[in-house]
């Protein structure tokens, strides 16, 4: 599912809301998750899962075009851990 599909689904399930209102709610939702993660926090949505960040160490990489060795700096990457209910849904027969 992509963002536009999500917005269409929300509009269908909430006909009393205008498209601009639905988009604004979605923007606030995603922006707040991103902002919290950028500050090093954690976002937990019960029944869905938890978003957090993890540190990646600096390492030596390889330029695939030239084969030369390059330094790849350390960085933070987003991490998602699904909740218990999500895992149960995914593994239901």
Show the helix and strand layout.
Layout: H1 3-13, H2 19-38, E1 43-45, E2 49-56, E3 59-62, E4 69-72, E5 75-82, H3 84-90
Antiparallel strand pairs: 1-2, 2-5, 3-4
What does the model show?
The protein has 93 residues and is α+β, with helices and mostly antiparallel strands. It contains three helices and five strands. The chain has helices at residues 3-13, 19-38, 84-90; strands at 43-45, 49-56, 59-62, 69-72, 75-82. A three-stranded antiparallel sheet has the order 1-2-5. A two-stranded antiparallel sheet has the order 3-4. Strand 3 (59-62) and strand 4 form a beta hairpin. It is elongated and about 55 Å long. It starts with a helix and ends with a helix.
Q: Which terms summarize this structure?
A:
93 residues; alpha+beta; 3-stranded antiparallel beta sheet; two-stranded antiparallel sheet; 3 helices
Question: Quick recap of the structure?
Answer:
The strands form two sheets. The protein has a three-stranded antiparallel β-sheet. The chain has a two-stranded antiparallel sheet with strand order 3-4.
Shape from CA axes?
elongated
Number of helices: 3
Average pLDDT over all residues? 95
- Enumerate the spans where pLDDT stays under 50 for 5 or more consecutive residues: none
What proportion of the residues is helical, as a percent range? 40-55%
**How much of the polypeptide forms β-strand, as a percent range?**
25-35%
